[in-house]
Amino acid sequence: MRPLLPAMSPAVLSVMLLASSVSGCTATAVTFGYSPYLEPIPGSITYGGKPRTGLRRAPVGSIVPHQFNDRAGRTVYETYVVEPDGSLRLVSRRYRYDFFDFD
User: Fold this and answer.
1) Residue, of 88 and 97, whose pLDDT is higher
2) How many CB atoms within 10 Å of residue 10?
3) Using alpha carbons only, what angle is made at residue 52 by residues 46 and 56, rounded to the nearest 5 degrees?
4) Among 7, 37, 44, 59, whose CB has the most other CB atoms within 10 angstroms?
């Protein structure tokens, strides 16, 4: 009598289980990291429209870093790129979680 499933090593079986579990995930809009779908949050330079000051003399493609604390008290690091019209495009957002904040 032949078994229904051929004998598999534990490594092959674990890879197959991992692949099947990951394939069920769906892509959603990302609010952090590097994504073309980043939206400004309260504290962002571009939150609520254009920034108060223009970047007329900044070279196109320049990187503008920005750091602030969000409503939850986390430190947020954002990176913007200067567009040809002088506007800023949000290209990345990272959070820093301070578990041991002694300040």
Assistant:
1) 88
2) 7
3) 95
4) 44
Is residue 52 classed as helix, strand or coil in its secondary structure?
coil
Residue type, 17: L
User: Which residue in 47, 52, 55, 50 sits closest to 82, CA to CA?
Assistant: 55
Query: Are 65 and 78 a contacting pair, CB within 8 Å?
Result: yes
DSSP state for residue 61 in the 8-state scheme: T
Nearest to 89 by CA among 76, 55, 68: 55
DSSP 83: -
Beta bridge partners of 17: none
| Mean pLDDT on 48-76 | 87
pTM higher than 0.70, yes or no?
no
